[in-house]
Automatic annotation (TrEMBL):
Protein name in the entry: Thiosulfate dehydrogenase
Enzyme Commission code: 1.8.2.2
Domain Cytochrome c: 57-185, 178-263
UniProt keyword Heme, yes or no: yes
Signal peptide extent: 1-31
Length: 315
């Protein structure tokens, strides 16, 4: 999501929170404060309550696609990430852009593409960018199953309301400008043990144990996680895995900057040149695409988007 659309959806979230909170005047001062606490809490249903029916069967399919995406939606996935690599606990965890909170916010206007997106279109974007793959048709069984899973997770949640835990954490701006060298130190100390010293992730045979953070097997330059703000919020709340909360805000910003200062698959919206693509889609402090870092122009040496899908087609 670009900063504009994030600002927009934050604004929507705040507005919803404000309308819900009696006695809170909708002033700029209030909007900038910790209104997040006013968002209503929600707990998704437990797996045990899933009905043993035709409907329940599709919910389970959706969950399996979410957890093991390359295996269960192979035609549409170009890397080895799962939806659950970035939306933890099968899309249930708060502050990890949980699916129950997302479900009730669509259809929604997105500045990323300048129109109201249905949930199906939103999910198509996940495949194209985060999965470095190809968008399934809006009525494809893969999207039906994912939406059915999300609908079930959101059972009895209010519609159109930003719930507590929706999206990723939004960290306050860092005290010091995010920095590559400090980020590389954080990375070496806390991340490389799982994600590899080159961000390449780790496989056990053909089975991926730790996902790639950059390089050919990661998400592409069009994905929301390439934006430093999204990555910093995700990392602060969720990484190192099992020890979340260990990094302070500055460290989260620095390591997010470092991670996103490396090459990854090309933005599938690439047009004409890196400079023009930056001007059109990446013109913000949140994206390093098209900037020169350590003597390398990011985006100038990106593998073609589509990963495995393209490689398979070329064989
Ligand atoms: C103990 C191993 C471990 C450590 C240490 C760790 N991670 Fe992760 N990380 C994971 C796993 C596993 C996932 C996928 C989540 C899942 O499947 O539940 C993940 C997912 C991610 C993702 C999203 C998926 C992707 O590939 O882009 C990012 C970004 C990330 N980690 C960044 C970091 C950063 C930055 C650090 C250091 C501060 C870090 N991780 C430390 C294991 C780890
Ligand atoms: C590399 C990490 C990553 C992967 C993999 C990923 N996502 Fe996301 N997702 C994000 C980020 C970051 C955002 C928020 C920023 C944005 O909108 O671009 C997001 C946002 C979303 C949203 C909107 C959330 C909201 O509250 O509005 C949905 C729905 C979603 N993802 C579903 C999926 C599905 C389904 C998959 C698998 C097909 C998937 N994502 C794979 C990182 C990821």
């Amino acid at each position: 999501m670009n900063p504009m659309s994030r600002r927009l959806s934050r604004a929507t979230a705040r507005l919803a929170a404000l309308t819900l909170t009696a006695g809170l005047a909708a002033t700029a001062a209030h909007a900038a404060g910790p209104v997040t606490d006013a968002r209503p809490a929600f707990t998704p249903p437990t797996a045990a309550s899933l009905p043993d029916s035709e409907f329940g069967k599709i919910v389970r399919q959706g969950e399996q696609i979410f957890l093991h995406t390359p295996q269960n939606a192979a035609k549409f996935v170009g890397n080895d990430l799962n939806c659950a690599s970035c939306h933890l606990d099968a899309g249930r965890r708060a502050d990890s852009a949980p699916m129950w909170a997302a479900y009730v916010l669509y259809p929604a206007y997105r500045a990323k593409n300048g129109h109201v997106n249905t949930l199906a279109e939103r999910l198509q974007g996940c495949f194209r960018f985060s999965m470095n793959g190809k968008a399934p048709a809006a009525d494809d069984p893969v999207l039906t199953a994912l939406q059915t899973y999300m609908f079930w997770l959101a059972s009895k949640a209010p519609t159109g309301v930003a719930l507590k835990g929706q999206g990723y954490l939004k960290l306050p701006a860092p005290a010091q400008k995010a920095d590559y060298v400090r980020g590389s130190e954080v990375y070496g100390q806390y991340c490389a043990v799982c994600h590899g010293d080159k961000g390449q992730g780790q496989k056990n045979g053909t089975h991926w144990v730790f996902p790639a953070l950059w390089g050919p097997d990661s998400f592409n330059w069009g994905a929301g996680m390439h934006q430093i703000g999204n990555a910093a919020g995700f990392i602060k709340a969720n990484m190192p895995l099992g020890q979340a909360g260990m990094l302070n805000d500055q460290e989260a910003w620095d390591v997010a900057y470092f991670m996103n200062a490396h090459e990854r698959p090309q933005d599938p919206r690439y047009t004409e040149s890196v400079a023009k693509t930056r001007a059109k889609y990446h013109d913000s402090d949140d994206s390093l695409y098209g900037l020169e870092i350590n003597g390398h122009l990011l985006g100038s040496d990106s593998p073609a988007p589509g990963g495995k899908l393209v490689q398979a087609a070329a064989k």
